[in-house]
Specification:
- The protein is an alpha/beta fold.
- It folds into two domains: 171 residues, Uncharacterised protein family UPF0261, NN domain (Rossmann fold), CATH 3.40.50; 218 residues, Uncharacterised protein family UPF0261, NC domain (Rossmann fold), CATH 3.40.50.12030.
- 40% of the residues lie in helices and 18% in strands.
- The strands form three sheets. It has a six-stranded parallel sheet, with helices on both faces. Strands 2-1-3-4-5 form a five-stranded parallel sheet, with helices on both faces.
- Helix 1 packs across helix 7, helix 4 packs parallel to helix 5 and helix 10 packs across helix 12.
- The protein is elongated and about 70 Å long.
Length: 405
């Protein structure tokens, strides 16, 4: 029989958590109770807060006696992050659900994030309707808005808890393990203005026996890709769309953080990198663009997205940032430079066409990359031309076959 873990503060939310447990039992599933509260639980649990705290060498009773809530939450969160993957690996549960406010959400979600992708995870939370990136990270947690506070049972909360329990039960009970041919995985980064390049390369790589997972370079996509590369999911990386660095350096809204482009380099995974969409910084509506950028070259992608052309100096900065990351490479890699434009709108006659800006980017990269493991190839084509995508895909196949030879 499948089992759903219910993690939460059984000292303060036992009524709500017990209600969820009742629904899950009624659906023919077992439950596994994990107590993440500071004080004694109000019903019997399978995993105590003492066990969780001991994972990092802490004594929850001593912390509780001091009434140090901040320390207790931190200890339980870090302990659960270590314990949950162990419990899952031991077959204690098949999926997990929790409910809480901002405190309960920040306490349980780190442990959920530590579970493998694909393990059902449902978090009923008072903060689920806002920016949940800090809770979800690069995982697949299903965040369910609680609508009302997680404080007792009422006509609204019982409906929410019921639906959430049905959701986790459905994920666990009706899991379909359809046989899928296992193929080596390749990560690829793509933006709307580099889609033709990535699609053509993806089709070629799939014909060579690989499965290609495409990540949208919107900040969250880049973070997810880096996280999965770090976790060892991929045999190779086709990272031709590095535009998130524009937003990281120039304050756009699709930055992926300062660690972008590090995972494959440090893991020694074969990778082909390019400069896709480094001609643009992403903002929201035109009214959201910072005043310091007044007078720049803008392109209205749609009513909610405004693109700003990067300048010559900004391309110098981008070249230095990317060179720093590629100089970290622990195995052979290739950087391909599309001499006729880095995006769909950086082509002759298009609004972001900028030969001088691109030249600064290319020259900075060529001067600043000193790692002998990184081969630099100049392709006399736009990034979306078949000549470029063919060269990039073939280069990755070469690296995959030859390894470090």
């Amino acid at each position: 029989m499948k089992t759903v873990a219910i993690a939460g503060t059984f000292d303060s939310k036992s009524l709500e958590l017990s209600y969820i447990q009742e629904i899950i039992h009624g659906l023919g599933l077992k439950t596994f109770l994990i107590h993440t509260g500071v004080f004694e639980p109000k019903l019997a649990v399978d995993v105590s807060n003492e066990e969780i705290a001991s994972m990092i060498g802490a004594d929850i009773k001593e912390i509780a006696a001091r009434k140090d809530r901040a320390t207790a939450t931190d200890v339980l969160s870090r302990g659960l992050e270590k314990l949950l993957p162990q419990l899952y690996a031991a077959g204690k549960f098949d999926g997990i659900i929790s409910c809480g406010g901002s405190g309960g959400t920040s306490l349980v979600t780190p442990g959920m994030r530590a579970l493998p992708v694909g393990v059902p995870k449902v978090m009923v939370s008072t903060v689920a309707a806002g920016d949940v990136s800090m809770y979800v990270g690069t995982s697949d947690i299903f965040m369910y808005p609680s609508i009302v506070d997680v404080a007792g049972l009422n006509s609204i909360s019982t409906k929410i808890f019921t639906n959430a329990a049905l959701a986790i039960a459905g994920m666990v009970k009706f899991e379909v393990n359809k046989a899928v041919e296992k193929k080596p995985l390749i990560a690829a980064s793509m933006f709307g203005v580099t889609t033709p390049c990535v699609n053509q390369a993806r089709e070629f790589l799939e014909r060579q026996g690989y499965e290609v997972l495409v990540f949208h370079a919107t900040g969250a996509g880049g973070k997810a890709m880096e996280g999965l590369i770090k976790d060892g999911y991929f045999a190779g990386v086709f990272d031709v769309t590095t535009t998130e660095w524009c937003d990281e350096l120039m304050g756009g809204n699709m930055a992926a953080g300062e660690r972008r482009l590090e995972a494959a380099a440090l893991k020694g995974i074969p990778q082909v990198v390019s400069v896709g969409a480094l001609d643009m910084v992403n903002f929201g509506p035109i009214t959201s663009v910072p005043e310091k950028y007044t007078g720049r070259n803008f392109y209205k992608h749609n009513p909610t997205v405004t693109l700003m052309r990067t300048t010559i100096d900004e391309n110098r900065q981008l070249g230095l940032a990317i060179a720093e990351k590629l100089n970290m490479c622990q195995s052979k890699a290739a950087l391909l430079l599309p001499l006729k434009g880095v995006s769909m709108i950086d082509a002759s006659g298009q609004p972001f066409y900028g030969p001088e800006e691109d030249a600064m980017l290319f020259n900075t990269l060529k001067k600043s990359i000193t790692n002998p493991l990184v081969e630099i190839l100049e392709i006399d084509a736009n990034i979306n031309d078949p000549a470029f995508s063919d060269a990039a895909a073939n280069k990755l196949i070469e690296l995959l076959k030859n390894g470090n030879k």
